[in-house]
Each structure stands twice: as C-alpha cells, then as structure tokens.
C-alpha cells in the first residue's frame, strides 16, 4: 500500500566509525588523547541515583562554567547534543529568509544537508584555487544568512579575524554563523566580535578539543537576542538534549582546560611535523590550523592510498568522487607515535 507523507531524502553519509581498537583511526578528527583526569573522575563519582529525574532544562551549571571561561554572560550561551545539534538548531532558528544562505562549496558537508532538510534556499560559494574562502564574495550580496567554518573543514585553512569581521559587519541584517569546531588548534576566534555585533553566532564542540566526541556536547555563543530565539526553538523541539552525565562531564572538562591546552598544543606540534614529513615525500599539504590535514598524495592516487592504508589498519578519510576533493585525503592527527607509523607505512611504498 502506498503511504502518504513519507519524507524522501538521500541519507547523509557521516564518517565511518570502525570500532576495532587495534586500528589507527584517524578518519573523523577525534582527539588523540584521552579525556582529562577530572572528566574521568567526574564519571567515576557520578551518582546514578539522580538519573531518575530529567536533566536540567537550562543547563545552568555548564553554561555558567563556560561563561566564566569565555568571559561572556550565561544568557549568551546555549548548550546542546554536540555542535551538530546546535548548528541544526541555528539553521532552524536563524535562516528563515526567502533569500539564499551562503556557505563555501567545500566546507562541512552537513550545512547543505540541513539546508535541504529544513527547506532553506542556499548557494554554495566556490573557494579560491588555493582552497581559501574569498571574503569579497560574502560582502555586498543579498543573502538570507552566512555560514562559515573557521578554520574551514576539510581544508583546515583559517581566515583572519579582520576578514571575518568584514563579513559580519557587511551583513548585519542577517545572522552570520561561525563554526569554530577546530579553533583550539589554531586560527583566531570570532569571540571578540560579540562585543560589537549582535548578528554573529559562534558554535563550538567538546568533541575535538576536549576529547569527548562520544559524550555529545556542543555549544553556541551569541547575543542574548539570538540565544533567546534559539532557546525557544530548542525548547519546542528537544528540551532535555544535554543529559545529566554529559553536563557533569563537560563541566569537569571546562575546569580542566589547562590539561587540554597542553595536549592540544602537542597535537598542533605533531601536525606540523607530520605535514613537513608528507611534503618531504612530495605530497601537497594545505596549511592547517586544525587537528587534521588535507593532502594530495604524489605518485599514487588518493583512493589507492586510502585503500592501501586501510589494508595496513590505518583508517583515514577519502571523500570519494567529489570534484576537487577526489584527489585528496583528510588525515586526522593522532599521537606522535601513530603519525610516525603512518609516515613509515607511506614511506615504505616509495622505496
Ligand atoms: N563542525 C565541523 C566543521 C565538524 O567537522 C564537525 C565534526 N564532524 C562538527 C561541526 C560537529 O561536531 P560535533 O557534533 O561532534 O560537535
């Protein structure tokens, strides 16, 4: 029997999550290090009795801790079930214009998926030949909003704050969403813009810099006006999206920020070492301000290298036949030992 009302969409193919612990899994930009000692302690001492009740609707404990750490007020923060949740809510809450939302043609793949899902008109703006976001393309354009990942993904390239400000300043009649999922590894945050502009909304995640991808916590920072709009949408859709365990552990992570500063600095160092090693093999490596690199192999096709690495239990990201990206692999930065092993395995191909 034919059924009415079923939504027909092509499912988004998220990064694969093979669970084999022996594998060097460097395909979805997780942190190379374990969560901080304080987070593990908070997990061990969590009182399971409290799970009888719903989680805190407003998540004030976590929002207060974040506000203190970021130097903003509680009413400038919303927390959610990963930054995917916050970004999807931002699309639902801020991009209801008839004009097209602009985002780069190579960026986080979910933007297009959400625009399609929520029936938001959009336009993908090409990157430059060097894979850079061209500032002027976002200035003096009629649009229904702008979404930019800074640093961008999967290129890893960051935009100077002055250029982000130029985009925000030129588009004060719409919301500019800045996705800062990778900001802990390089680049310049748009946080200072909050003092002057109420149309900027920044998203962040605990998945990358706080080594908590499996916990699912992300947050958004914006003017009280934007936060009250997105809060209303969140509370109309999934009010208790951050569970009690997630809130306790994420709060402990913010308290342990010095641990994370240390391990993330180490990841950035390993990234620079790994990039230099790849370049020495003749590979093109885009300048990365993140915990991954986008690289075009030399002497072997990207897809073949992807398959070869997989046969050696090393799992990186190949995007398939996607225009310019089909010549590239995205490789997350693991520990120094893991990345040395990757270099050794690739090097062996060419001896
Ligand atoms: N933005 C970007 C640019 C990302 O790469 C990711 C992770 N794949 C996310 C947002 C979402 O991360 P999470 O939902 O784990 O916070």
UniProtKB/TrEMBL annotation:
Modified residues (N6-(pyridoxal phosphate)lysine): 208
Residue span, Aminotransferase class I/classII large domain: 21-346
Keywords: Amino-acid biosynthesis, Aminotransferase, Histidine biosynthesis, Pyridoxal phosphate, Transferase
GO MF annotation list: histidinol-phosphate transaminase activity; pyridoxal phosphate binding
Pathway listed: Amino-acid biosynthesis; L-histidine biosynthesis; L-histidine from 5-phospho-alpha-D-ribose 1-diphosphate: step 7/9
GO biological process terms, semicolon-separated: L-histidine biosynthetic process
Pfam family, one: Aminotran_1_2
InterPro entries (alphabetical): Aminotransferase_I/II_large, HisP_aminotrans, HistidinolP_aminotransfase, PyrdxlP-dep_Trfase, PyrdxlP-dep_Trfase_major, PyrdxlP-dep_Trfase_small
Cell membrane recorded as keyword: no
EC number per UniProt: 2.6.1.9
CDD domains: AAT_like
Catalysed reactions, semicolon-separated: L-histidinol phosphate + 2-oxoglutarate = 3-(imidazol-4-yl)-2-oxopropyl phosphate + L-glutamate
Cofactor(s) named in the record: pyridoxal 5'-phosphate
PANTHER family in the record: HISTIDINOL-PHOSPHATE AMINOTRANSFERASE (PTHR43643:SF3), HISTIDINOL-PHOSPHATE AMINOTRANSFERASE 2 (PTHR43643)
Family membership: Belongs to the class-II pyridoxal-phosphate-dependent aminotransferase family. Histidinol-phosphate aminotransferase subfamily.
Description of how the protein assembles with itself and partners: Homodimer.
Protein name: Histidinol-phosphate aminotransferase
Organism expressing this protein natively: Pseudolactococcus laudensis
